[in-house]
Amino acid sequence: MSETALHVLTLNCWGLKYVSKNRTERVRAIAQELAKFHHDIIALQEIWVFADYEHVRDSVIKRLPYSKFFYSGALGSGLALLSRFPIISTSVHPYSLNGAPIDVGGGDWFVGKAAVSITISHPVLGQVQIFNTHLYAKGGEDGPEHNRAHRIVNAWEFSKLARQAAELGRYVIAAGDFNSIPSTLPMALIREYADLSDSWAVAHPIAPSTSSPSAMDAITQFGVTADSPLNSYSAGKPIGPYARKFLGKRLDYILYRQPIRPPTHLDDDPLPVLKCTECNVLLTEKVPGRPFSFSDHFALEATLEIQTGNRAPADLADAHNVWATPGAVRGPATTSVSKLSADSLTTAMQALAACYRFSRQRAKKELALFAGCIFILLAVVVGSPWLPHSWINPIFILFTIFVAWLGTTMLYEGFLYGNWECNALMNVIEELEIYKNSLETQAGTR
Fold it and tell me: How much is the pLDDT for 161?
């Protein structure tokens, strides 16, 4: 079996129990399709039901004997990784912000979205850390700022994990549903700080000149994986102006980077280089014999070629590859590190600050509502002996239960969750401020 490339696939399975349509039939169809493929790594999102994961795992176990289903939050992370190579370690990092508990319809807070990873032992590359994630859903491309902030926090925490893995001398592959189009701030943070290369952008460096693409052109030429009119579940739902204009969104990614080598090892034998040579959108058709798609997302696959030699290929010398720095001719990995642009730093800090102010104001309103509920409960207790009719008692009991529930919820939201959110936002704001100061200090010493 050739070890000259890594074949990676990612798919959001949309597998929430009782909620996702045609879940059982779709998961079985997905498992059948994955068993036909020849990927070395498969990253799955929204595979919430363990029995569904077991079915997929058992379907591909002959080629991918190593796998991990990750737990997080109250309902699980929905994330799983399957590998052809032995797993030597795993990790789960729940994001500090995942929406609000009162947003039951969104559900992000309950499922505990996270960045998970496995570290595999590869015969050529050595240790490779493979991340799988699903970022916070709400936020969109246009804000408001307080809505975008949670996904920005996710992206910052994810980028730190990927960068730390590279600093440990590991190759990094990151796949998943990032809920962000390429031009958004979360993807800029991940590309710039974690120094991750986008497989689709590397494999399709020249944008097609099609001014009015068809739905299929949007998939094959622009990498659309969600909200496509060709997807049976997207066709009937309301979608935003961006998806209507571009016939879908590119939300799913396979990213990668090389390890960082300490200066004492720069004269050692050069490390192999990962380079994406092909990236395609898969499972765009309907489930055979059924009128629905495999999921509300399409799958994405990438071929990462393992290049060996004395020097890094010239076409990799771009601003988003850590080895492409002046004088770095010995190989792909150097001691230089990537930097966030001033625009990304400023915009991120503004969004986080806006969310902090919004959270403080919301917490004050919720605590005021809690105080109002306490006042109403006291009034009910005092006034209950003077009820004119006995049939009013059940109504008063139900009303008291509702007010007590509302007051408890507002106390939790306004005090516990409000402080949690503000503290998490302040932590990231201070981290970015320290990072910004360090860049200014470095610039001043040159």
Answer: 97
The three-state secondary structure class of 168 is: coil
pLDDT band at 236; cut points 50, 70, 90? confident
Distance CA 112, CA 94 (A): 6
Q: How far apart are CA 277 and CA 264, in angstroms?
A: 31
Computed from CA positions of residues 142, 105, 116, 279, in that sequence, does the dihedral angle turn out positive or negative? Answer: negative
Identity at 221, one-letter amino acid code: Q
Task: Give pLDDT, residue 208.
Answer: 67
ω before 123 within 30° of 0 (cis)?
no
Spatial CA neighbour of 135 closest among 173, 200, 82, 78: 78
| 3-state class (DSSP) for residue 4 | coil
pLDDT tens sequence across 317-333: 333 333 333 223 333 44
Residue 158 and residue 131 in contact, taking contact as beta carbons nearer than 8 Å: yes
pLDDT at 213: 77
Q: How far apart are CA 314 and CA 230, in angstroms?
A: 39
Closest CA to 411 of 377, 365, 366: 366
The structure's pTM equals: 0.88
d(CA 433, CA 72): 30
The alpha-carbon radius of gyration of the chain (Å, integer) is: 25
Distance CA 227, CA 238 (A): 9
At residue 32, the pLDDT reads 97
For the domain made up of 5-338, give the CATH fold: Deoxyribonuclease I; Chain A (3.60.10)
Q: Write out pLDDT tens, residues 21-65.
A: 999 999 999 999 999 999 999 999 999 999 999 999 999 999 999
Distance separating alpha carbons of residues 84 and 66, to the nearest angstrom: 6
